[in-house]
Every structure is written in C-alpha cells, then in structure tokens.
Amino acid sequence: MKLQLALDDMTLVDSLLMAEKVRENVDIIEIGTPLIMREGMRGVREFKRYFPEKEILADLKIMDGGYLEADMAYDAGADYVTVLGVTDILTAKGVMKAADKHSKQMVVDMICVEDLPKIVHEMESINAQYIAVHTGADQQSIGRHPIDDLKIISENVAKAKVSVAGGINSHTVNSYVSYQPDVIIVGTGITHAENPSTEAKVIKEAMGKGEK
Fold first, then answer.
1. CA-CA distance, 117 to 125, in Å (whole number)?
2. Rounded CA gap, 16 and 11, in Å?
3. pLDDT of residue 212
4. How many whole angstroms separate alpha carbon 191 and alpha carbon 180?
5. Are 81 and 95 in contact (CB under 8 A)?
6. What are the tens digits of pLDDT across the range 109-147?
7. Helix (H) or strand (E) segment spanning residue 62
8. What number does CATH give the domain 2-210?
C-alpha cells in the first residue's frame, strides 16, 4: 500500500519544500491539477529532478487529446498520468497508448462518474492500470464521502489497482485501509497539518498496520 502526497494549492517552491518535509513517508508525489495549471510540465520536471527516487503523478485529468497530453507528461518524467473516467473511451485509449510507449501507467480518475461498475469494466477492458476513487472538494462540502464509492469500486475491479482520495487524514485513514486500496492519496490532510511530517508518519504507520 502506497501513500501518495497531493500537492495542489501552493507555489512550486513551497510544494518542493513540503515534499522534502515528508519525503521519508511518501511513495508517490502528485503534481496536482492547480499546480500543473500554474507551472505546466516544469513542475513535473522539477519534482523528478529533486525526488528521483519517488514516483511522480501528473494529475492532468485529461478529457480530450489523450495521447498528446499524456505524452508530454511522460516525457517530462511522470510515472502516472490521470484521465477522467467521464471522458470518451477513445481519449483513454490515447492515454494508454502514450503510457505503453513510455512503459508508464494510466490512472482513471472516477470523479463525477455516475455508473461506477460500467466505467470500471470499460477501463479494465483497455488495460487501465489504476482506478482512482475521487470525491472532489466541492462534493465533500455537501457531505459526500469517498468511502461510499470505494466500496463499489472494490467490489467491481478485476485486475486494476485501486487508489482513493478525498479528504483523508490520520483520523479517517483506518476506514480506508480496511478496504485494502493499493494507494491512499492525502493532500490537505498533510499539507495543512500543524506538523506535516508527523501527520504523514502517522498515516503511513496506520497503512502498514492495516496491510494484509
């Protein structure tokens, strides 16, 4: 089980400094969508340069131009690129083509997907490596929780790995660990914590205890 740090609402320099604080306990560093919008592929390249031992995820949330956009991120050093589950299957196939070219991986972000089992099966049919449960910040604000979707997706995946995101922190992580996802994604739960290093350590330890 891997811990993914999502970096969204800080500058590139502050994001690099934050990642350094928690370096020991994170496995994947996510260059979040707002950070990529601010910095472009420079953000991916800089994180790969300063954290060569970490896996890097470019959260592009691709909706069109799958091959072109994914190819840019993989060229910049991304190990994972996200495509939206609500997009056309042809776009996802384009991302997979780029992933295969670079021997990297595609993550399907299931935010706003209504028929979760259907999209899981479609994306597995084109060999998507990861299905990502994602309850967005706007959805969280009205009381939706990612664990509800995690239950459904966990029951429907046949071969893809599962990651989960959406307001997870040290107080809630055990609920998610019990479903044995492959990746737990934490953003503000770490980056906005009083002591990010301690928070990351506590979360990582909880994940270790819950692994089967």
1. 12
2. 9
3. 63
4. 24
5. yes
6. 999 999 999 999 999 999 999 999 987 777 767 776 788
7. strand 55-62
8. 3.20.20.70
Structure tokens of 120?
Answer: 């899981």
Whether the predicted pLDDT of 68 surpasses 80:
yes
Residue count of the chain, please give it. 212
CB atoms inside a 10 Å sphere around CB 156: 17
Cα-Cα-Cα-Cα dihedral sign, residues 139, 142, 148, 152? negative
Number of Cβ within 10 Å of residue 143's Cβ equals: 6
DSSP state, residue 2 = E
Q: Are 4 and 22 in contact (CB under 8 A)?
A: no
DSSP, res 167: S
Is 0.90 surpassed by the pTM of this model? yes
And the tokens for 163? 């990651």
Residue type at 113?
V
User: What is d(CA 87, CA 6) in angstroms, rounded to the nearest whole number?
Assistant: 22
The answer to whether the beta carbons of residues 104 and 81 sit under 8 Å apart is yes
List the chain domain ranges: 2-210
List the beta strands (DSSP E) in 63-166: 80-84, 105-109, 130-134, 161-165
